[in-house]
Design goal:
Order of helices and strands: HHEEEEEEEEE
Number of helices: 2
Number of strands: 9
Oligomer: single chain
Largest sheet: 8 strands, antiparallel, barrel
Distance between the termini: 45 Å
Shape: globular
Protein name: Lipocalin-like domain-containing protein
Helix content: 10-25%
CATH class: Mainly Beta
Length: 139
């Protein structure tokens, strides 16, 4: 009984160490922030001050590794011509892991985003100095 109580206390302490301060959650996760970020993502929803602009981002893919590597692939149509844009770079947490920074070879894709939600199957980011909010889901 005593060993069970000690095990329960240790597990509870570990769980509360994993608590996040993201506005949209989760409150508790057993996976580290890095493990949750590392994924192959696509944009499920994009908003600009509450206006749905998902169609502008539906062909964007973002691959992030635990080692801090990042690859962004964007397929888009401009004046009836399809383009594929691929750039690689790095990502890192900022501000006590409440923000994430992207530094790509193509500097146009660089940015700092506030993390609104970070789950294993959801990552919501909002431009730190802008109005666009991106809700990523696994590819």
């Amino acid at each position: 009984m005593k060993k069970t109580m000690i095990g329960l206390l240790v597990a509870t302490a570990f769980a509360f160490q994993s608590c996040d301060n993201y506005p949209d959650g989760p409150l508790v996760s057993l996976k580290s922030k890095t493990e949750r970020v590392a994924n192959d993502w696509k944009v499920g929803e994009a908003l600009d001050e509450g206006t749905n602009i998902t169609s502008d981002f539906e062909k964007y893919e973002l691959s992030l590794t635990k080692d801090g590597e990042a690859i962004l692939i964007a397929n888009y149509n401009f004046l009836g011509i399809n383009y594929e844009f691929t750039t690689s770079g790095t990502w890192e947490f900022l501000s006590n892991a409440t923000k994430i920074s992207f530094d790509f070879e193509n500097d146009d894709a660089d940015g700092i985003y506030k993390i609104l939600r970070l789950k294993e199957n959801e990552m919501w980011l909002k431009e730190d100095a802008g109005t666009i909010e991106l809700h990523f889901m696994p590819r």
